[in-house]
Write the structure tokens for this entry.
Amino acid sequence: MRSWGRKAIIKNQFMEVHHHSHKPKNWKEYITEFVMLFTAVTLGFFAENQREHYIEGQREIQYMESLIEDLAKDKYDLSQSINYTITQTKNIDTVIAILSENNWTPENIKTIYRASLKVGGSRPTTFIDRTSAQLRSGGMRLIKDKKVATLITEYWQLITQFNEYESVGIHEYKLNIKNMNYKIFDGTNYLDVKNKIIKENATLMTYEKNFLIEYKNRLFNLNFDLKAYMNGYFYQKIEKKIDELQKAISESYHIAMPATPNKY
């Protein structure tokens, strides 16, 4: 009886162990699990990719909204530079006319003193670099519109050319003229610089013919470059490029054209 009992217990334990053992998976189940896992990973990847595209798309729009505002400020500052240069060339015309006349009446002397205040001055044009700096440091890759991207690059190139010409060529001309002004015009003859009030008995510091001819020649040179290259080329090209870029951004990204600011 004892032997039979032990056999029954062993048999029952074997059957219990055999009953709880797992059935091996067939190849179809492995494939199903792989497909499910691959699908989950793929969907996760696409979801993350879509999220990144959305974020980049929003950032692209923010860049364009910011840039179109910067362009409006650039255009305003450019208009101020244009007005300054037009006023300057008018004063240069006045000085050249008096030097050519070579008739040093008290009124002519006072007139040339007034005009001399403007002939060598400068008003650097300020281009807003707020958005452009971010675009240059990696943001350009977000610009999907090829036309807009091309116009941005062309605008930067034009500004670089303008700044180089103004800071090297024009600056050198004006510096030479200002140095000559110190030898022609006596500062004590200005009673009120702001209102351009000159002493009645004002005289030039020199009437030396060749020196004044050189001065006139330098003014001719500066005047030509200001009219032909600054006003006639760079200012017009930059203004046109701003208009093209603003229009392209507005149409491509459905952003309203900003009003040109009066001040900022």
Summary: The longest strand covers residues 190-192. Residues 25-253 form one domain. The chain has one domain: 25-253.
